[in-house]
Design goal:
Layout (H helix, E strand, L loop, with lengths): L8 H15 L1 E2 L2 E2 L11 E3 L2 E3 L14 H9 L23 E2 L5 E2 L8 H19 L1
Antiparallel strand pairs: 1-2, 3-4, 5-6
């Protein structure tokens, strides 16, 4: 598996807004696929959300641009990758044994604790910018 490489917030913001103006897309997701008001509100953990949809946890939910893309596509419940105290575990990749039913054979995260925190904050900030 390729290493995940976080991108700075300023670069993500510039790309999102420049790409939207120039190409009509954000992170290669075309504007016609945006679901900004899903309309099927539900209550989850005491909060109203626009739809009971969103990505399952995995490597893809660690990077800000992927979380933002899920939100643009209508996802309103983000199951983020589990962040654990020990972020230095060395394991072979991929870590899913899929010979039969598919089983996660270890606990891992691709980013460090600090990188994970920064990615989740960047995603939240960019979603707030796009929502306005």
């Amino acid at each position: 598996m390729a290493a995940l490489r976080p991108v700075g917030l300023a670069i993500l913001v510039a790309r999102a807004f420049e790409e939207l103006e120039r190409c009509g897309s954000i992170f290669d997701l075309p504007r016609r696929a945006f679901v900004l008001e899903p309309g099927h509100e539900v209550e989850i953990h005491g909060r109203r959300v626009g739809a009971p949809l969103g990505p399952a946890a995995g490597p893809h939910t660690q990077l800000a641009q992927n979380i933002v893309s899920a939100w643009l596509g209508g996802g309103r419940v983000m199951e983020l990758k589990t962040v654990q105290v020990n972020d230095r575990i060395e394991v072979a990749r991929p870590c899913i044994d899929a010979r039969t039913v598919g089983y996660n054979v270890e606990w891992s995260q691709e980013l460090s604790l600090d990188e994970s925190r920064i990615e989740y904050v960047k995603a939240s900030m960019l979603i707030e910018l796009l929502a306005h």
